[in-house]
Specification:
Elements (H helix, E strand, L loop, with lengths): L5 H12 L1 H14 L2 H24 L1 H7 L4 H21 L15 H13 L2 H11 L5 H24 L1 H6 L2 H29 L10
Length: about 210
C-alpha cells in the first residue's frame, strides 16, 4: 500500500471506502429513512469521514509515535476489526452500536449504523495511516489527504444521485450484495492480518505466490 502518486492513493481509497461499499450501507438506510433524513445522514457522515480522514492523514506519524503503534500492529488490528464486521454482513447479524430500534428511525441511528463501515472504516483508516507514513513530507501527506477527501466526495455524489434507485431496489437484492461484499471484505481483512504477520517475521509458506 505504499503508493507513490495521487492516482495510486486514489485507487487505494476507492477500493477500501469507495461507492461500491458505501452504497450498500446507504441502501439499507434508504429503506428506513425518508429522503430528507437520508440526505442529512449522507452530508453529516461524509463530513465526519472527511474530518477524521484529514486529522488521521496529516498527523499520522505523530499518532503512531504517540501510541507506539507499529505498522504490523496497525495491519493486524484493522484486519481483525473489519473481519468481525464482514462476518456480521455474511451472516446477516446487526453490527455496531445500533441494535434493532423500537422507535422510528432518526438521523442519530442512521449515523451510528455508518460508524464502522464508513465514517471510521478500519480498512480505510489502516490504508490512510500507512499511505500517509510512506513518506515523511507534508506534501505527501497532503496528497494522501486530498485523495481520501476526493473519494469521500465521490461517495456523497453517488449517494445523492442514486438515492431513488437505492430506495426503489428490492431489499433482497441488497441483502444478496451485502453478503457477497461481506465475503470479499473478509478475504481482504485476512490479507491485512497476513501482511501484518509477515511484517512481524512470521513465516507464511506460499505467501506471495
Amino acid at each position: 500500500m505504499n503508493a507513490l502518486t495521487f492516482s495510486a492513493a486514489l485507487i487505494t481509497f476507492v477500493s477500501v471506502v469507495g461507492p461500491p461499499k458505501v452504497l450498500i450501507s446507504f441502501a439499507h438506510l434508504a429503506e428506513l429513512h425518508p429522503t430528507r433524513q437520508l440526505r442529512t445522514i449522507a452530508f453529516i457522515s461524509c463530513g465526519a469521514a472527511v474530518f477524521i480522514g484529514l486529522v488521521a492523514s496529516l498527523t499520522a506519524p505523530l499518532l503512531l509515535d504517540l501510541f507506539h503503534i507499529s505498522t504490523p500492529a496497525l495491519l493486524l488490528a484493522g484486519g481483525i476489526i473489519f473481519f468481525l464486521y464482514a462476518v456480521g454482513l455474511v451472516l446477516g447479524i446487526p453490527t455496531g452500536m445500533d441494535a434493532p430500534d423500537q422507535d422510528a428511525p432518526d438521523v442519530t441511528s442512521g449515523l451510528r449504523e455508518l460508524l464502522v463501515p464508513f465514517v471510521v472504516s478500519p480498512l480505510a483508516m489502516t490504508a490512510l495511516l500507512i499511505e500517509a507514513t510512506a513518506r515523511s513530507s507534508w506534501t505527501w501527506r497532503s496528497t494522501v489527504a486530498g485523495a481520501y477527501v476526493a473519494v469521500i466526495l465521490l461517495d456523497l455524489v453517488c449517494i445523492l444521485l442514486l438515492e431513488r434507485l437505492l430506495r426503489a431496489a428490492h431489499h433482497a437484492t441488497f441483502e444478496l450484495l451485502g453478503r457477497l461484499l461481506g465475503l470479499l471484505l473478509a478475504a481482504v481483512s485476512i490479507d491485512l492480518v497476513l501482511d501484518g504477520l509477515a511484517e512481524l517475521g512470521v513465516g507464511l509458506s506460499g505467501r506471495g505466490h
